[in-house]
Amino acid sequence: MKYAIDEKRTLTIGGIPQAVRIRSTDASLPVLLFLHGGPGVCDRHWVLRDQSALAETVTMVCWDQRGAGLSWSPKLKAEDMRIDRCVEDAHELIAWLKQRFGKDSVYIVGHSWGSILGTLLCRKYPEDVAAYIGMGQFVNGPENERLSYEFVLEEAKKRGDKKALRDLERIGWPKEGHYASIDDLMVQRNLMTKYGGEDYGESDGIMKAMILPILRSPEYSLADMWKYYKGAFFCLNSMWDEVVDLRFDLTVPELKVPVYLTEGRHDQNTPIPLAEAWFDQLSAPRKEWIWFEKSAHSPIKNEPELWGATVRDIVLKEEAVR
Fold it and tell me: Which CATH topology does 5-141+222-321 take?
């Protein structure tokens, strides 16, 4: 595919350098900003790999958020990492994109932690957002962690996984969403990934699922892997307590933008019942729930062709009514 734009840029956002990746076949296309998960788990390596066809419909923008991936810096402190600061970073980036591409708004894809950032961005700055596309939609931190732990515990019992049961007994149930440490959280997430709650089907665990795709991608060099690793754990350690206390079911009854949730049927990272209940009550100009039957937390890579075609159709439909 021939790209009119294929750029890696570093912009000053929120007073610090942040890495942005832009790809498009035509600079006049609508702009789509991807908000990655984590906090701190950048995704440009598989977004650009699996969704390259979208560059014919939109100008794709991948952003290594504050403290993550190529935007990690040893100069950053934990106090620099707050949810409201990240929302303002996104707002600054969108202002730059609007000016660069001559748009009055942009489309947003928010995945997992990115769905938190996207939801809060839509609530505060709806005029900036043409439509919000959520995936692995976060809603209620304490209940999210309880249900995810429950899934892993029941799977471990079903499989007779004695080591997993010992590990789960050691870390215990999360208290109001909080584990005793990030290490304990990672024990649960690793088992959840292994049991198919992150990606559809069985997995080797979270580290292998994360690291191998990065190593195989041209987006991050071997030297960049150190920044990626440091950034991922820095963001998680700095922000997780604030993240897990969020309750969109209580605080976000309305979004003044079109809302599309593209949800994997088997997601146990952000359990589906929470997103369904929130979505059913949510007030929005237009809203649509779209199932992906062979996906878990990430339909964008579990069913890449179907997800890409779905997003293309959403953008075309929204552009037709603008």
Answer: Rossmann fold (3.40.50)
